[in-house]
Amino acid sequence: MDHIRNFCIIAHIDHGKSTLADRLLEYTKTIQITEGQMLDDMDLERERGITIKSHAIQMEYTSDNTKYILNLIDTPGHVDFSYEVSRSIAACEGALLVVDATQGVQAQTISNLYMAIDHDLEIIPVINKIDMPNAMPDEVEDEIVDLIGCDSSEIIRASAKTGEGIPEILEAIVKRIPEPKGDPKAPLQALIFDSIFNSFRGIITLCKVVNGSISKGDKVKFVQTGQEYTADEVGVLKMDMIPCPKLGTGEVGYIISGIKDATEVKVGDTITHVDTPCKEAIEGFQEVKPMVFAGVYPIDPNDYENLRTSLEKLQLNDASLTFQPESSQALGFGFRCGFLGLLHMEIVQERLDREFNMDVITTVPNVSYKVYDKHGNCKEVHNPSGLPDVTAIDHIEEPYIRASIITSSRFIGPIMKLCLDKRGELVSQNYVSGDRLELIFLMPLGEIVIDFYDKLKSISKGYASFDYHIDSFRPSKLAKLDILLNGEPVDALSTLTHESNAVALGRRMCEKLKELIPRQQFDIAIQAAIGAKIVARETVKQVRKDVTAKCYGGDISRKRKLLEKQKRGKKRMKQIGNVQVPQKAFLAVLKLD
Ligand code: GTP
What mean pLDDT comes out for the span 281-285? Predict the structure, then answer.
């Protein structure tokens, strides 16, 4: 146990976490890097450059003739995944705090850092990218000293590109990070921090043994779910899974126990022995509460069951995704999925497409609302079409977030305006260092869900970082905006919005839909309505287009090819009444200017 070091890396997106991890693996000869980065194994992650899922990897490192086992637990950096970050952090005794020498400390770095400090992790500050010509290591050093109150001599300057500072980082890991605490003789308590789906082995649970030990063949129980299993295989994670007879106190590894159902493994749950169970679960378990909801519908109704299986498999790898069957008049049978945020939603949609070949339509996302009736009963509504009749509603509450934005003082004006336009209230503003400020706002989450990130990025030219936590539910004056196509309400296009925005939003949605809905063989009326009142209208003029017109003569195979092509083009369309609506239209509200 005294030769084990469990640590994670806290860094803002693009500050070099993956590259640094690769260097550590390379230096310890855990891997030979050939090309690209090893930790992000999903193509999607590579493309987006965001570490979506936590992984763990073991390295061996010798210092002063003593061999150490270092377990690096990877953490996602995006705000949408903060629960996964908190579980990875709970499995560690130390953290490398990596800050880009050209960028300085960012909002997400701070919130993850606070989480690490809350868990009493030993923090090793690292200034990365010191090889860059525009690096400002002295300024960044001051920021870090202000932030964590450490001595500047404790800060390591490094470059994950050139390898400078890597030996110092490894030495700091073994010298400064404490060995895992825990009682080898106590009943087993292992913290689940991740799980992986493997089509041959079923569900693989990743955990850290906090107390006691687990051996191959043990009968174990998952405390929160109450399910019992046999540990068919236990082992450690290097580049491959390496089976071993036992995982002792403080060790990080995997357990395979023949679990097939994705929903049985919950990140944050505790594993114990059936015969000698621990008294209580490791604290801090929390069912992740999704805050953003959207309908996901198969384009081909026959794919409904496949979609369910695919979502179950995704859920296994992504404990924060939730889903429930729902139906829509416009889209048929599908699921209402709960996501942590908008990025999470996009990722799920892309993974459905790539990994499961599912063509789906996603509806406009919304947050969850608390709807109170006249008798004081409260109902949570995740879907605008689930809203009770207006006459039955006393008031509605919507979730508010506490948002932190760190930026240079020259962008303060436009950022203030953006936040105030989004119904934000300024709580405080503090200097971080030099001319960089942290602004704290209370804002409705519903306003962030739509297009906040993109706007913030563009007005600050990328020099603003953003992080948020759910703060409270507050009463709001909300209106339900419906969209009608040729007089038919399209439930999948309904949104809930603040009364003051509703008319303008209706107008912009009609304009946008006019651009997105292709002309068809008849006029299409697009209307926006609040209750019975029509507040905006646009028309898509008819057109007559016969794709086969240009192949005169009887070449039937050519004709068929053209029709096939047209059909493929239609795949991402949905028939609503007699109108063909493209997928893009269902997300139109997200891209309004
Ligand atoms: P996410 O996985 O998105 O959280 O990003 P990350 O923090 O893992 O960043 P990543 O390692 O992908 O690095 C981001 C970019 O910075 C890549 O283009 C790296 O090649 C580059 N980079 C990382 N470290 C250094 C460094 O020390 N010097 C220089 N010049 N570039 C670096």
Answer: 80
38 and 170 both lie in a single domain:
yes
189 burial type by CB count under 10 A (0-12 exposed, 13-18 middle, 19+ buried): buried
pLDDT digits (tens, 9 = 90+) for 196-222: 777 778 888 999 999 999 999 999 999
What is the ipTM metric for this complex? 0.97
CA of 162 to the centre of ligand 1 (A): 12
- Give, in degrees to the nearest 5, the angle at Cα 260 between 257 and 261: 120
80 is in an annotated binding site: no
Nearest CA to ligand 1 atom 14: 14
Other residues' Cβ atoms within 10 Å of the Cβ of residue 370: 16
Report CA torsion sign: 291, 583, 572, 305: positive
Residue 46 confidence (pLDDT): 53
Q: Check whether 19 is labelled as a binding-site residue.
A: yes
Tell me if 16 is assigned to a ligand binding site.
yes
Q: Are residues 426 and 330 in the same domain?
A: no
The pLDDT value recorded for residue 261 is: 74
Q: How far is the CA of 13 from the centre of ligand 1 (A)?
A: 8
Give residue 211's pLDDT: 96
- To the question of pTM greater than 0.90 for the whole model, the response is no
Domain termination residue (choose one: 341, 365, 389): 365
Give the pocket of ligand 1 (CB within 6 Å): 11, 13-19, 49-51, 77, 128-129, 131-132, 159-161
For strand 332-339 and strand 322-328, is the pairing parallel, antiparallel, or unpaired?
Answer: antiparallel
Any idea what the Cα angle at residue 364 is, between residues 445 and 337, rounded to 5°? 80
Question: Which residues form the domain of 116?
Answer: 4-176
Does 164 lie in the same domain as 112?
yes
